[in-house]
Amino acid sequence: MFVTKYRRKAFTNEMMTRCEEIMREVCADFEADLKEFNGEEDHVHLLVHYPPKVQLSKLVNSLKGVSARLLRKEYDAHVRRYLWGGHFWSGSYFAGSCGGAPLTLVKQYIENQKPPVG
């Protein structure tokens, strides 16, 4: 899970769709598979299957860095109203292993996140 800086409600539906596209491309570059993606106005949830050779911190760094750069560039006027100082994402993130949980249960949780308004 990634949270916007200051938990600002910056995402629109269009931005959420674009963010998913960007994150799918980044995952593909790491030979990882974005299994599920969803979120709300101030955060996103990702279910990613990645190979053991990939360092999680490098994958997260790339996901956050590339998405922040492109979303700021493509939605500059909108993003500037909510986020400033060159930041998009909070510096932290949550990553959990779901090896013991049924994948369908994790997917269902992510699917049930409320979409952004607007």
TrEMBL record:
Superkingdom of the source? Bacteria
What Pfam families has UniProt attached to this entry?
Y1_Tnp (PF01797)
Task: Spell out the InterPro entries in the cross-references.
Answer: Transposase_17 (IPR002686), Transposase_17_sf (IPR036515)
Report domain Transposase IS200-like positions: 1-113
Q: What SUPFAM superfamilies does this protein map onto?
A: Transposase IS200-like (SSF143422)
NCBIfam families cross-referenced by the UniProt entry = transpos_IS200
* Record protein name field: IS200/IS605 family transposase
Gene name on record? Answer: tnpA
